[in-house]
TrEMBL record:
<comment type="similarity">
    <text>Belongs to the protein kinase superfamily.</text>
</comment>
<dbReference type="InterPro" id="IPR017441">
    <property type="entry name" value="Protein_kinase_ATP_BS"/>
</dbReference>
<feature type="compositionally biased region" description="Polar residues">
    <location>
        <begin position="280"/>
        <end position="295"/>
    </location>
</feature>
<dbReference type="InterPro" id="IPR000719">
    <property type="entry name" value="Prot_kinase_dom"/>
</dbReference>
<dbReference type="Pfam" id="PF07714">
    <property type="entry name" value="PK_Tyr_Ser-Thr"/>
</dbReference>
<keyword id="KW-0547">Nucleotide-binding</keyword>
<feature type="binding site">
    <location>
        <position position="25"/>
    </location>
    <ligand>
        <name>ATP</name>
    </ligand>
</feature>
<protein>
    <submittedName>
        <fullName>Receptor-like serine/threonine-protein kinase ALE2</fullName>
    </submittedName>
</protein>
<dbReference type="GO" id="GO:0046872">
    <property type="term" value="F:metal ion binding"/>
</dbReference>
<feature type="active site" description="Proton acceptor">
    <location>
        <position position="124"/>
    </location>
</feature>
<dbReference type="GO" id="GO:0004674">
    <property type="term" value="F:protein serine/threonine kinase activity"/>
</dbReference>
<feature type="binding site">
    <location>
        <position position="142"/>
    </location>
    <ligand>
        <name>Mg(2+)</name>
    </ligand>
</feature>
<keyword id="KW-0418">Kinase</keyword>
<feature type="region of interest" description="Disordered">
    <location>
        <begin position="278"/>
        <end position="304"/>
    </location>
</feature>
<dbReference type="InterPro" id="IPR008271">
    <property type="entry name" value="Ser/Thr_kinase_AS"/>
</dbReference>
<keyword id="KW-0067">ATP-binding</keyword>
<dbReference type="InterPro" id="IPR011009">
    <property type="entry name" value="Kinase-like_dom_sf"/>
</dbReference>
Amino acid sequence: MLGEGGFGRVFKGVLNDGTPVAIKKLSSGGHQGDKEFLVEVEMLSRLHHRNLVKLVGYYSSRDSSQNLLCYELVSNGSLEAWLHGPSGANCPLDWDTRMKIALDAARGLAYLHEDSQPCVIHRDFKASNILLENNFHAKVSDFGLAKLAPEGRANYLSTRVMGTFGYVAPEYAMTGHLLVKSDVYSYGVVLLELLTGRKPVDMSWPSGQENLVTWARPILRDKDRLEELADPRLAGKYPKDDFLRVCTIAAACVASEASQRPTMGEVVQSLKMVQRSSEHQASMLTTSTRPNLKQSSTTYESDCSSSMFSSGPFSGLSLFDNDNISRTGVVSEDLHEGR
């Protein structure tokens, strides 16, 4: 058995051709359980992206009330296990690995929101639903609660509040109005987990610090305090400027007002700019330590006086005021890659 949750159990299996797979055996949940099974089959049958877990097949029997889902095996566990379980305690994730996971997960959500037709709202995005390959590339999983986004003039769905405490956006929790931006909030919580190493809700912390977003918000507003957020297991081994930039992205994602949050496409572009900045600084450092080599002919034009965010309190804030990183180059490269 690979794992167990409210949905049922997950087992490891092998197909006739020797391909290892994960078999999810859904617990008998009556009408609701059957509905979630059908939603997941329907969603994953038409959603195809490198950062989404692939559905291989399914089995359903009304006679025995048995529903089985067969997925590709993503063998390195969940992000939750690596951040909050024994895996992470023995071998903490380093900064670069955390940023790789953050970008992959953002790409998966951006595909659901912006590239699938019609748009899909995941509704249960969280660290335990981000599965990791052996090279720590990430795939978003578990679409049992997913909803098709409304089309036309309506920008929200009125639906029973579902999801996981600590990840649910405030407007959804309070009104039952589900928005595409509700997923963005959940992503922001996961990004804060990657930055801090904390769980979304942890009652072992002192009063006022139990909820991750509530604790982090005032610190995110003070540039001089941002390093208080850093996971102690990083041991200070992260680029300070990049940490500040990712904090800015996280703060925008968990904004109280949904309209002030960025789109997931904007988050992907911003994280790619952080990645490009880090690579550029590393190459410059290498060049400076090897003075006999000619400088690379690659040029980086400064086109970063404007923010990647089109709305909200961070729309006028540049993440890259002092870096010669080409925003145009990042965007065009990303389109070429298909995110």
